[in-house]
Amino acid sequence: MYIIDGHNLLWSVHKVQPDQGEIDEIKLCRMISEYLKLSGDSGQIVFDGIGPPEKETFNYIAALEVFFSGTNTDADTVIKRKIEADSAPKRLIVVSTDRQVRDAARSRKATSIKSEQFWAGLLTQLSKRRKFKEPNEKQQGLDDAQTKRWLDYFDIEQ
Question: Is 156 helix (H, G, I), strand (E, B) or coil?
Fold first, then answer.
């Protein structure tokens, strides 16, 4: 299971790929969700603060739980608590570039990945997705003989 430092990853995305300025919290979560579904894994992402006023959209993201730290603490503290509370920390993969978060992961024998590395792996996996090839007939339509066969099959007169 992944535990991801949300704003840390978002900052890394914009640093590594400045042209990705349109990626916000929700788009980031959707991309991570796709990645997790492809890898058959699950995860949690923690953002600093209270987040956007309307959080309904975050409820429909598969394989990824979204958390906001609130006003009294920060995402790093929440992540460190999650690492500490986990009953099987060796199965965790913690994504953050923050040294204290990475140290907390290593102290519990969890795997720690820098945000830039995770993002590069995510983009590679998503680019490998098998694209479904639509049949030519969908784009070009049926030829006259195929159309006649279907009309005859359903006993439809022209």
Answer: coil
Residue 105 is assigned to a structural domain of this protein = yes
Does 134 reside within a domain? yes
Q: What is the pLDDT of residues 58-67, one digit of tens each?
A: 999 999 999 9
Three-state DSSP state, 102? helix
What is the span of the domain harbouring residue 93? 2-153
CA–CA separation, 106 vs 20, rounded Å? 31
In a domain, 158, yes or no: no
**Low-confidence residues in the chain, pLDDT < 70:** 20-21, 130-134
Enter the DSSP assignment of 57. Answer: G
Query: What is the domain count for the chain?
Result: 1
Helix (H) or strand (E) holding 93: strand 93-95
The CATH number given to whatever domain includes residue 97 is 3.40.50
Summarised one tens digit per residue, pLDDT across range 32-69 is: 999 999 999 999 999 999 999 989 999 999 999 999 99
Cβ burial of 64 (10 Å; 0-12, 13-18, 19+) is buried
Cβ contacts of 71-77, under 8 Å, gap ≥ 24: 74/48, 75/5, 75/6, 75/7, 75/8, 75/46, 75/47, 75/48, 76/5, 76/100, 76/101
- pTM equals 0.80
